[in-house]
Predict the structure.
Amino acid sequence: MSLVFRRAIVVGASSGIGAEIARQLDADGCAVALLGRREDELNKVAAAITSSGRGSAIVKKHDVTHTDTVPALLDELVKQLGGLDLLVYASGIMFTPGEGEYDFAQDRAQIEVNLIGGMAWTNPVCAMFEAQRSGTIVGISSIAGERGRRTFPGYSTSKAAFTTWLEGLRNKASRYGVNVVTVKPGFVDTPMTTAIERKPMVIPASKAAELILSAAKGGGSPSVFVPGQWWLVAMILRHIPSFLFRKLSI
Ligand SMILES: NC(=O)c1ccc[n+]([C@@H]2O[C@H](COP(=O)([O-])OP(=O)(O)OC[C@H]3O[C@@H](n4cnc5c(N)ncnc54)[C@H](OP(=O)(O)O)[C@@H]3O)[C@@H](O)[C@H]2O)c1
């Protein structure tokens, strides 16, 4: 099976993986709506799309923590696009506390952006896709959600919860023709990871976007590691006993 996407919303399209996904969707002939808080960055992605000569992108300044604005914005975008085949939820923030540092505000913010914002978008989109008996939802989670990590307890919690949320949606809606895709990247070279020194098996955002779209087009509601080698790492991580895992520096 190879799904064809014609109308897409990318939440978190102003940089990194989301921006690359938007560019590659445009290259495939898909009309795209770009969402995020930094309008200037969204405009740069839209300008690249326009200059490609293939199409134009809709730009909407949007903060995913303003969840009450989602239903009306979704309606507006679906009207402008003339329908919807694909939602990509790529918005995310990561806080890595230092040794001895504890910060509830940062942990809360990660849950609000990485999980609650994702629930606010995927709920109405899933209802729409279930009613139309088709559509693809791509949620960018992370391999970080496989275990509670001492380097970022709040981030790993938000990603574990988002992974579980997407699995629940898949179990609820895939029988109605909705393709729910969970994406668990390893290290991707984006603004989010600029400050991280050691990034084993890092890939460029363009490669990540290519792998993500290929998994989404395949249908069948997959849960994928990006790139696939992280599956083995995840298997190993999951089987390290807790008393040993806490001694590791990851
Ligand atoms: N890079 C990696 O190694 C890696 C690995 C695993 C998973 N991921 C996940 O991949 C996704 C994309 O991250 P990235 O690596 O591409 O980093 P990025 O370049 O920092 O992109 C993050 C995106 O999230 C958006 N965002 C953040 N807060 C938002 C808010 N309140 N409202 C709306 N949008 C918001 C940003 O847009 P604005 O700032 O314009 O709002 C931006 O478009 C994230 O979910 C991240 O957790 C990344």
